[in-house]
């Protein structure tokens, strides 16, 4: 795994993973494609099915249908819709985006899934990218540590914390921290520039840091929520 907090049990024999594919930039690099290739379940947001089909054989070397397509079904091309042979979950509500609908479905219906990796959540539009990243904090509030949820792209791995944690990220890794809670303080160990005095009243305040140790400890002043992005 790539920079997970220490809390998930990475050695569980029963651990299963799901990859949710958003309709953003489909990854080209090895790590996100590795996650997709080794996923137990593949869930496409409806508009992402077209991109998945274009990249499927390059990743798997054969046809590998997604297990589920979820959304309001307004973005699937007729050709992709007729080709798909898996399960369709139609959700037409506009209060949540398709990514959230997919996360809710996996967390609620697929109880054997311990990890959710979201790909394609960034890159196409800045507003969608910001919104999708911020939703990781909402998921952490809602679901806690299980399932562990992260967003992975060709450029970063992002996940949310709700309390003190240790991150196995590797020395030299870029680390950025965001929080909507300006009452939160985070004491850090293992970062080049300590975050102890940071007031989270703007997005840039704890960005572009570096890990000086393999393990970074972030100690929260109280249970809250923060987004961590690693390069």
Key features?
231 residues; 5 helices; ten-stranded mixed β-sheet; three-stranded antiparallel β-sheet; alpha/beta
Could you write a compact summary of the structure shown?
The protein is of the alpha/beta class. It has helices at about 30-35, 50-60, 80-85, 100-110, 125-145; strands at about 15-20, 40-45, 70, 85-90, 115-120, 150, 155-160, 165-170, 175-180, 185-190, 205-210, 215-220, 225-230.
Structural account:
With 231 residues, the protein is an alpha/beta fold. It contains five helices and 13 strands. The chain has helices spanning 30-37, 49-60, 78-83, 98-109, 126-143; strands spanning 16-21, 41-45, 68-71, 87-90, 113-119, 148-152, 157-161, 165-168, 174-178, 186-189, 206-210, 215-220, 226-230. The strands form two sheets. Strands 4-3-2-1-5-6-7-13-9-11 form a ten-stranded mixed sheet, with helices on both faces. Helix 4 runs parallel beside helix 5. It is elongated, with a radius of gyration of 18 Å. Mean pLDDT is 91; it is low at 6-11.
Helix content: 10-25%
Number of helices: 5
Q: Structural class of the secondary structure composition?
A: alpha/beta
Query: Roughly how many Å is the radius of gyration?
Result: 18 Å
- How are the strands of the biggest sheet laid out side by side? 4-3-2-1-5-6-7-13-9-11
Beta-strand percent range: 25-35%
Number of distinct beta strands = 13
Order of helices and strands: EHEHEHEHEHEEEEEEEE
- Gross geometry: elongated
Distance between the termini: 14 Å
Uncertain segments are: 6-11
Instruction: Provide the residue-averaged pLDDT.
Output: 91
Largest sheet: 10 strands, mixed
